[in-house]
Design goal:
Layout lengths: L7 H4 L25 E3 L5 E3 H8 L6 H21 L5 E7 L2 H4 L16 H10 L4 E4 L1 H7 L15 H16 L10 H4 E8 L3 H6 L8 E8 L6 E2 L3 E4 L25 E4 L7 E6 L7 H5 L4 E4 L9 H6 L10 E7 L9
Helix pairs in contact: 3-5
Length: 338
């Protein structure tokens, strides 16, 4: 006899396996805090503001460019007027990742601007009395051999940051041979590890334990036990650069390499400097600090040049520091226009 009831398992057939390609669209949930994230080709992540830089959505007028040049020249003249000693202002420009790895951009990007704001500012600085170091050509020459920007974070890898350090130290070595850059292969220990994903993964709202980052960290073999200003117990090596040893994100908050700090190493054959910077100064912060006699690092994001500090942190032999250095990434370039 037939059973009174037949179970569903007796009648159901195994479904055909099907796959779907899903295109991420964050339009309905765009962040309003300025940290919106765009998903590019092959799932690369970029801040929306980086896309604006690349597409030329934030260009400057000729009046703004001229005003910027006038401000830079006025700062150079002010520094020269205050001291007979040859002090100089150096601008270090670091392009966004999109300018170097445009293969990371979303498909069908319509770029209509002939030049970006970054390129206009670079050209403007080259026409002032300041010294310009534009990292674009160096990065383009290295992009295929080494990863210069992290995949899940908006900042430079330590190798990319080393290139910035190298170019700046080479410039200083023209006057101060002892300030030449340390050799990455012989004077650092390289360690590769997998860490939690970076700020792009965080702001995109994805699980950073799943979207991880493979990083190479470079630990100096030379001593960084160099005293902090005013008899502090802290040394260069005591200041953290990352939010954790297993984290791709750079530090935030107090008591770390993102804060205003002053170091005096007591080596008169090295220059004295003020450094105004953003977060991309942090990955090689310790190695750079070691290349000075006295150096003041401003808090990241603070680009207001203080001429009183230029006197306060000079060597005993001179009235002013040797260099005022402004290190800025393309995405933060509006900060130096004021």
């Amino acid at each position: 006899a037939e059973p009174l009831f037949r179970s569903f398992s007796d009648t159901l057939k195994e479904s055909e396996v099907r796959s779907f390609e899903v295109t991420y669209d964050a339009t309905a949930e765009k962040r309003i805090d300025g940290n919106g994230v765009t998903v590019g080709a092959n799932s690369y992540l970029l801040f929306d503001s980086v896309m604006d830089d690349y597409l030329g959505n934030n260009l400057l007028s000729q009046t703004q460019i001229k005003a910027f040049k006038d401000v830079v020249n006025a700062k150079c003249a002010n520094l020269k007027k205050r001291s007979s000693y040859p002090s100089s202002i150096i601008y270090v420009l670091i392009p966004d990742s999109a300018a170097i790895y445009n293969e990371r951009l979303p498909e069908n990007i319509d770029k209509t601007a002939y030049k970006t704001r970054y390129q206009y500012i670079s050209e403007a600085l080259s026409e002032t009395n300041a010294t310009l170091i534009d990292m674009t050509d160096v990065f383009m020459a290295e992009k295929d051999a080494h990863l210069l920007y992290q995949n899940t974070d908006s900042h430079l890898t330590e190798y990319g940051a080393y290139l910035v350090y190298r170019e700046l130290c080479n410039k200083m070595a023209e006057r101060f041979p002892a300030a030449a850059p340390r050799n990455l292969e012989t004077e650092f220990t390289a360690t590769t590890k997998t860490v939690l994903g970076g700020d792009l993964a965080y702001y995109a709202g994805v699980d950073r334990e799943v979207i991880t980052e493979t990083v190479t960290r470079y630990t100096p073999k030379f001593s960084l036990r160099l005293g902090k200003w005013e008899n502090s117990d802290l040394n260069i090596q005591d200041l953290a650069k990352y939010q954790g040893s297993d984290d791709a994100r750079l530090v935030i908050g107090v008591g770390n390499a993102a804060q205003r700090v002053i170091f005096k190493t007591g080596r008169s054959d090295l220059p004295c400097a003020l450094i105004y910077r953003d977060e991309n100064s942090i990955p090689m912060f310790d190695a750079l600090a070691e290349r000075f006699d006295t150096v003041m690092f401003g808090k990241t994001g603070d680009f207001v040049i203080n001429m009183t500090d230029a006197q306060r942190y000079s060597s005993a032999l001179h009235s002013h520091v040797d260099y005022i250095i402004v290190m800025v990434t393309e995405n933060n370039i509006a900060s130096i226009l004021k």
